[in-house]
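Deliverable D5.2: sample structural annotation.
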Amino acid sequence: MSNNSRERKVRGSQIRSSRENKRSNSRDKKEIRRLERQQQGDDDSQYQSRVLPESDSFVETPAVRQIKRRASRWIDVNRPVHLIGPTGCGKTALAMNIAGMRDRPTVWINGDADLSTSDLIGEFGEKERISERDKYVHNVQKSKEIIRDRWVDNPLSIAVREGATLVYNEFSRTKPVANNVLLSVFEEGILELPGQRGESRYIEVHPEFRAILTSNSTEYAGVHKPQDALLDRLIGIHMNFYDEETEQKIVSQHVSSLDADTVTEIVRFFRQLRGTVEHSIGTRAMLMTAEALSTMESYDETDVIELSTDVLASKIAHQDELDHLREQIAEAIHKSDTEWR
């Protein structure tokens, strides 16, 4: 065999090897790209698995529409809105309704003292191993494994990638240090993912991303004062309890089996009680009392006193305080013009 012939055989082998390497490299690159897409949250299953609170029927009155217009105006110009008010005044329902009006997905998170930055943006949650076996020559098997850390997104990173509306409920119950990550999101339009590397470390905020935050007033227990730098980037809208007409409609909407006259009596009684007891009384207390009354064929003042005390007693720490609360409720019942049947 001539030298030229040997050279051709060697050259052919090199070409074959080169082609197989290219194919292998191509497969590796595709697999790596797939892993990167998963790490970057392009897999819709992560997003679709997020559980949102059930949306109850939303009541709109002139008072509700007025505050809804104010909040929506800021959402339209891409400013994060911070709804602040006493517990039970309808902040969460309003936030969810505004988010639902946008033709975009909604991502929900509930703040608490144990929430960390990784709970907001994600972390490396597991290892992913991909095995590849390729019989590219007869009776010869090539085996390769790719092992990658798999990044698992959390609500904030999902929302900024997808252009969703983030509803961050009880925002001020989270410690301020965990919320520092929001500063660059609202100001620079960039979310940094600590622990990631290279281009994967930064997410450019989707232009359709919006945020609605809710908080109780600072005098409530368990509420942290957010850092001024973050508050400076939020639009603060303070809410209070709605007017009597709105509260009546809310109670009627949720407890439809109760007649309108009884709903009116409940709402008026609790609104009078607000000025008497030292504890906050939200619309939710009216709803709970109405739900209980709807199960009873008949009731009197004693029943109303008992139910009202039960509804408000969760905020009481000692028996003497509970006795005082019951006395205040009984006094308010006796002073009212309502005839409980």
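Annotation notes: The beta strands are 81-84, 106-110, 122-137, 140-153, 165-169, 190-192, 202-204, 210-215, 235-238. The first helix runs from residue 3 to 39.
The annotation will be released with the project's public dataset once the embargo ends.
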